[in-house]
């Protein structure tokens, strides 16, 4: 039976069986020559999957994940239903996280070679999977040849970085809450994050030209876009400038120049920015130069609503976000929602291991318009709390931690049930729940592109919203609680999709079992 037929039948048995079928199609990809053919976009879910390569799959036995490991699991990602991959930094770097780059044009030798990366691009595109890579433009590594040369005041690279002068407040606090200035050889340089990450000076035209050259280089390789790290901090250096409109204007002006440079290679490049602002109004200006920005305020609200089993204004926030972004961009479906990423405690840990709450958070995320992002291992319920290395632990593929392909660079969790092997054969697993929800998006276009209108229920345990686009009109309802709930929806004719048995529409009244989701047509 096809997935389209299963959508029409809407039975729970088929929901579980199809999810199991999708998740079990896991195999290594066959190597092929690199090419620059872009990924296809037909019937996509518009879901992105964030991968920390070091923790993904080890194919050469050194305990460290590699690019060939990403290629080997493309069929897993295809079966999951994702449309794209975000690779955390893959450039050479002295750190394990990679956000201090020493060569913007190279591949971290621990991850493989440029040939390995080109093979990954080709194989991903064959499967209709796009790839974006982390672009760390705010700062370089202090071990980058640029910075080493910059230590000589006579070097042209000296002006690529920001140095103190007699009027500098050397006690200033950076926008990230850390000391802004760092002493080296009797002088001080700006490093908003740490001293190991000196900030580049984007008032220098040479720096701008080089960053555009770097972006175009990777697009010409066939990369489909970028996740731009710390994008607001290109000019937001100091805590005192947090709400400075001139700083915002300079950030936007630079990003517009960067976008124009990328458009010369690929006008469809997807460029999503890390902008940690608290509201849709403060995120919206970045939509002019960027394709999207991550929705940090929404992530907090989704997790809080799932944990508390209460709407608590979530529906109003969703409507406000859609209205604000539509006013800025002229269309819906531009948000980049997510639950957590490599800088935050994992969702399952935030929800204290409650599997029902985890499922509801996922159900809300994956029935929202836009292009949602999933952090690797989220779909099997991996846990992790800061410090950062503990939220970037090895992906668990097998019940046994010493099975071939498992990364061992750092100790991971020891629960065999939290593994792909354990969950792919269980129709009720979290993995198969994620798989089914992601495939919903491939079939109902309003789940990806719809204009969102909150649907008032007067029941704090329910979240409901309409999604409308040119070809589909649906009402999405979530019962966040552990008790059955009922609602009388307007104009709903039938249940199109359901996450649990027992969802039923009788005499105009919708019955929702505990912790369930329904999509009505």
TrEMBL record:
It catalyses: Endohydrolysis of (1->4)-alpha-D-glucosidic linkages in polysaccharides containing three or more (1->4)-alpha-linked D-glucose units. The keyword Plastid does not apply. One of its GO terms (molecular function) is hydrolase activity. It comes from the Bacteria. Residues 401-424 are annotated as: Disordered. Residues 1-27 form the signal peptide. This is Alpha-amylase.
């Amino acid at each position: 039976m096809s997935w389209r037929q299963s959508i029409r039948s809407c039975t729970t048995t088929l929901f579980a069986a199809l999810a199991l079928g999708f998740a079990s199609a896991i195999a290594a990809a066959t190597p092929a020559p690199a090419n620059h053919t872009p990924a296809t976009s037909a019937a996509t879910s518009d879901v992105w999957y964030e991968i920390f390569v070091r923790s993904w799959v080890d194919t050469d036995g050194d305990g460290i994940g590699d690019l060939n490991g990403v290629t080997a699991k493309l069929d897993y990602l295809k079966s999951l239903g994702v449309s794209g991959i975000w690779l955390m930094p893959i450039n050479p770097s002295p750190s394990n996280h990679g956000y201090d780059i020493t060569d913007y044009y190279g591949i971290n030798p621990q991850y493989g070679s440029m040939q390995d990366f080109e093979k990954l691009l080709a194989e991903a595109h064959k499967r209709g999977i796009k790839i974006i890579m982390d672009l760390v433009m705010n700062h370089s590594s202090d071990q980058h040849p640029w910075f080493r040369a910059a230590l000589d005041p006579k070097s042209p690279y000296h002006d690529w970085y920001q140095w103190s002068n007699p009027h500098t407040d050397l006690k200033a606090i950076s926008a990230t809450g850390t000391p802004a200035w760092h002493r080296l050889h009797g002088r001080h340089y700006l490093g908003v994050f740490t001293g190991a990450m000196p900030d580049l000076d984007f008032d220098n035209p040479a720096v701008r030209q080089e960053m555009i050259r770097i972006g175009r280089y990777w697009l010409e390789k066939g990369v489909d876009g970028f996740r731009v790290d710390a994008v607001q901090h290109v000019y937001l250096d100091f805590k005192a400038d947090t709400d400075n409109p001139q700083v915002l204007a300079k950030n936007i002006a630079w990003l517009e120049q960067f976008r124009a440079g990328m458009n010369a290679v690929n006008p469809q490049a997807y460029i999503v920015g890390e902008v940690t602002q608290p509201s849709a109004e403060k995120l919206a200006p970045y939509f002019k130069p960027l394709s999207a920005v991550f929705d940090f305020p929404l992530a907090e609200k989704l997790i809080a609503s799932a944990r508390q089993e209460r709407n608590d204004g979530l529906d109003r926030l969703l409507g406000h976000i859609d209205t604000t972004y539509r006013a800025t961009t002229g269309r819906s479906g531009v948000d980049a929602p997510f639950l957590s990423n490599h800088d935050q405690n994992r969702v399952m840990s935030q929800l204290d291991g409650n599997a029902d709450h985890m499922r509801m958070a996922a159900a809300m995320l994956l029935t929202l318009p836009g292009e949602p992002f999933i952090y690797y291992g989220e779909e099997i319920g991996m846990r992790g709390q800061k410090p950062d290395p503990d939220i970037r632990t090895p992906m668990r593929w097998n019940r046994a931690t010493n099975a071939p392909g498992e990364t061992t660079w750092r100790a991971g969790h020891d629960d065999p049930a939290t593994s792909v092997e354990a969950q792919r054969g269980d129709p009720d697993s979290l993995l198969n729940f994620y798989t089914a929800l992601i495939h919903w998006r491939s079939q109902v276009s309003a789940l990806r592109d719809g204009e969102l209108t909150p649907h008032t229920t007067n029941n704090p345990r329910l979240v409901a919203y309409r999604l409308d686009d040119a070809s589909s009109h649906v009402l999405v309802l979530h019962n966040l609680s552990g008790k059955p709930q009922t609602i009388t929806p307007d104009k709903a004719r039938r249940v199109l999709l359901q996450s649990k048995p027992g969802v039923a529409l009788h005499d105009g009244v919708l019955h929702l079992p505990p912790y369930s989701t329904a999509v009505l047509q």
